[in-house]
Design brief:
369 residues; mainly beta; Porin; two-stranded antiparallel sheet
């Protein structure tokens, strides 16, 4: 009941503020998914098949309020409040109302400064997320196969964050972000404090970007075990030659969370969790075809599993994803896709091998308002 009351209050406030340049917007994405998984661990096979209705597989279902006020002399203040929901059930995507974004910003000749909950620079969501959108035709990814996020560490959103986006200087834009952590203990060591800095350069039909991000987890304890700080270095480029747009991206990661990868060994009793480091690469293409767009990407990741600086295992992931979207109007389009990921983890200390295969086919409709 409290969530409903908050939502109704927000809607009423929005109605009274429409004269102050406030817009209501959103996306509704509903579709169907066929998922087939097969896992093998030390010879034991587990299989699973499912067919389900899904929300947000291609583009997250959401509604939001955004507005701005011109302060004069080139300055502007604005806000974005965005809430995710499940279109197949009507439930909130998260427990909080504005889980996708809740930011206040100020812009001028100096650029734009954002504060609040927002997407990270390395993703492709919200007001400041830019890297994944330029690194892959699928952005952060679709469905369970994830696209380039299957082979690279991609953080979605951060709380209590400040971000800066510079103006473009001859095609170059600089960006920086710092998140203080959450849980009421901002700016405390080991509270997932996060920072990122990046640069994006556009010239003609070519775009090149680079980004470094870091998460401070040095004092976080899980079963009395310390988690090492995580960081990544990512580069990407795309080029539109008219009949196709090509993408390429690469990342070096250390102790960052890469989709699907889990430790096979349990060394928590020794006081230090195992670490992971390696690289991921991804290529993609967006080709206009038959009135719509054909999308494809393929990726590979290779990493070491280490304990006390000693390598004890390795991990590999292969990813492939194809899709097609066809516009029915300026705001509505159909989509379909098929994706496959294969993961192999090997732990030499306990002679354990784990293999996971996932195939997923999607089809659905997206409407923007």
């Amino acid at each position: 009941m409290k969530k409903i009351a908050v939502a109704v209050s927000a809607a009423l406030l929005a109605g009274s503020a429409l004269a102050a340049n406030v817009d209501l917007y959103g996306v509704v994405n509903t579709g169907f998914a066929y998922t087939n998984t097969r896992s093998v661990e030390d010879g034991a096979v587990t299989k699973s098949r499912s067919f389900s209705m899904e929300s947000g597989s291609w583009s997250g279902s959401r509604w939001g309020l955004r507005g701005s006020e011109d302060l004069g002399n080139g300055y502007k203040v604005g806000f974005v409040l965005e809430s995710g929901f499940m279109s197949d059930s009507g439930k909130l995507e998260d427990e909080r109302l504005f889980d996708r974004e809740s930011t206040l910003y100020v812009s001028g000749d100096f650029g734009t400064i954002y504060a609040g909950r927002m997407g990270s620079l390395i993703c492709d969501v919200g007001s400041v997320g830019w890297f994944s959108g330029m690194a892959s035709p699928f952005g952060t990814g679709v469905g369970d196969t994830e696209g380039h996020a299957s082979v690279m560490a991609v953080r979605a959103r951060v709380d209590n964050a400040i971000a800066y986006m510079s103006p473009r200087f001859g095609g170059l834009q600089l960006s920086a972000q710092y998140a203080m952590g959450d849980g009421g203990t901002e700016n405390k060591s080991g509270n997932d404090r996060y920072w990122a800095i990046g640069a994006d350069y556009q010239v003609g039909n070519l775009e090149i970007g680079a980004l470094i991000d870091y998460t401070n987890k040095a004092s976080v304890n899980v079963d009395s075990s310390k988690i090492a700080d995580a960081w990544t270095f990512s580069v990407a480029a795309n080029y539109d030659c008219g009949f196709a747009k090509s993408f390429i991206a690469a990342q070096y990661f250390k102790d960052a969370s890469v989709m699907h990868w889990q430790s096979l060994g349990d060394y928590s009793d020794k006081g230090v969790l195992d670490s992971r480091k390696g690289f991921g690469v991804n290529i993609g293409v967006d080709i206009p075809a038959f009135g719509g767009d054909f999308l494809a990407s393929a990726g590979y990741a290779d990493g070491d599993m280490r304990y006390a600086k000693e390598k004890y295992g390795d991990m590999k992931i292969y990813s492939a994803l194809i899709g097609y979207e066809y516009p029915l109007s300026k705001r509505t389009y159909l989509y379909t896709s098929a994706g496959y990921t294969y993961e192999k983890d090997r732990d030499n200390k306990v002679s354990s091998v784990k293999k996971n295969k996932t195939f997923q086919a999607l089809a659905g409709l997206v409407h923007n308002f």
